[in-house]
Amino acid sequence: MKWLAAPALILATGVATVPSEGSQSEPIAGVANPARARQNWILSCQGCHRADATGSSTTTPTMAGYVARFLQVPGGREYLVRVPGVATAALSDADLAEVINWSLVRFDPTNIPPDFTPYSAAEVGRLRLKPLRAEAATVRANMVARMSEKQH
User: Which CATH superfamily is domain 31-151 in?
Assistant: First the structure.
């Protein structure tokens, strides 16, 4: 059983094999504790989205270089909270808002709109009451189509 202590200690201390934060030492709006946000990403998101947020071509959409584009189309802000893995995450509303804000800056800073307002716990709490389920793929396809129209 002693061999279980090392992985548990690594997980508890936040030392894991994920991309480093690099030079991202500036404060992130809506993120009170970046280490906690990163830890919540590791425990709640990276299992499907991967450490670098590239996802899987067959099961999990990429977030890297893409996720903040949803903020640029009507309904996209709400969509990011209502997707099943986000809306049903075992995190408090405050922790979920923090990890969403952290993820946007960490994985897609160039596509964040200049007038972006960070997600709040109250907003996340309200939106996650209506999670997308079977319709999630259709809603995503509509959002992606709107993004494509906006680029042309």
Answer: Cytochrome c-like domain (1.10.760.10)
